[in-house]
Amino acid sequence: MGQGDQLMATGLARSARARGKRIAFGDGRRILWDRHSAEIFRGNPNVAQPGSEMADDLEWVPFYKGHRIYNRIQDNRWVWNREFRASPGEIFLNRKEAAWSAGIGSGFVLMEPNIEDFKRWAPNKRWPYERYDEVAACLARDGFEVVQLDHGGRHRIPTARQVKSPNFRHGLAALKRSALYIGPEGGMHHGAAAVGVPGVVIFGGFVPPRVTGYATHTNLTGGAEACGSLTACRHCRDALRAISASIVFEASMIMLRNP
Questions:
Q1: Separation of alpha carbons 223 and 16, rounded Å
Q2: CB 46 within 8 A of CB 29
Q3: Looking at the whole model, is its pTM more than 0.90?
Q4: Is the CB of residue 166 less than 8 Å from the CB of residue 96?
Q5: Which residue in 210, 244, 203 sits closest to 224, CA to CA?
Q6: In sequence order, what E strands does 89-170 have?
Q7: Are 202 and 184 in contact (CB under 8 A)?
C-alpha cells in the first residue's frame, strides 16, 4: 500500500509523545523504514527515526514492510487479521504545503478513480471509470465542484477540475480542504481519515472494511466478503460491479448534506 501503510502507522503512533515516548517501527533491534516512510513521518513527533535505536524513550511496534500486522500472504492471497482495526493517522503539513493548498479553494469533492497499475491485484480494486464519470456529472449537476489530482493516472474525469499536485503530501493538503473524498481503498482514503475528511470508499470484495476502514467513512463492498486474491478474480469484479453509480452518488449526498 505504500503511503497508506505509513499513514496507518501514524495511527498506531498517535499520542506517543504525550506519554513521553516515540514509536520505533521495526524488529526490536532496527528501525525499518521503506521508501515512503520519510515522506509520511516528516514532522511527526511520535515516530522515531532510523539511527535512534539506542534512545531510552522508544516503544517498539513490529509494523514494517513484510510485517504489516493486518495481513499475511497464504496460497496466493492476503489473509486478513480481523482483530486489527485501523485508527485514523496523522500528517504534519508544513507552511508551504498548506499555503499551496489554499490556492485550490475549499468545499469541493475530491475524487480519485485510479489504482496503481503495477500491483497485480489492481483489477480487484478498480471500480469502472465510467461510473466515476457518472457520479462526478451528477455532483456537478447538483452544484458541487469535483476536483481530481493530476498525478499521471490513466483516467481523467471529464467534469473534474484537474489540479497538478507536486507530491503525495501536497495531495493530502488539498484533500484537507475538501468536503468529501470519493475513491478506492488505499493511500488517499487513509489520508482522508488522517485529515478528518469524510469519504465514500469503494472497497469491493478485496479488503475488509473492518480491518482498514474507518467509521467516519461510508465503506462500500457490494455485499461481498473480502477474498484478498492477489490475481484478478471474478468475485472481486462482481463485487465492484454491484456498486452502482447511484449508490455512490446517494451515499455522497448524504455525507455532503450532513457534514
A1: 37
A2: no
A3: yes
A4: no
A5: 203
A6: 109-111, 146-150, 161-164
A7: yes
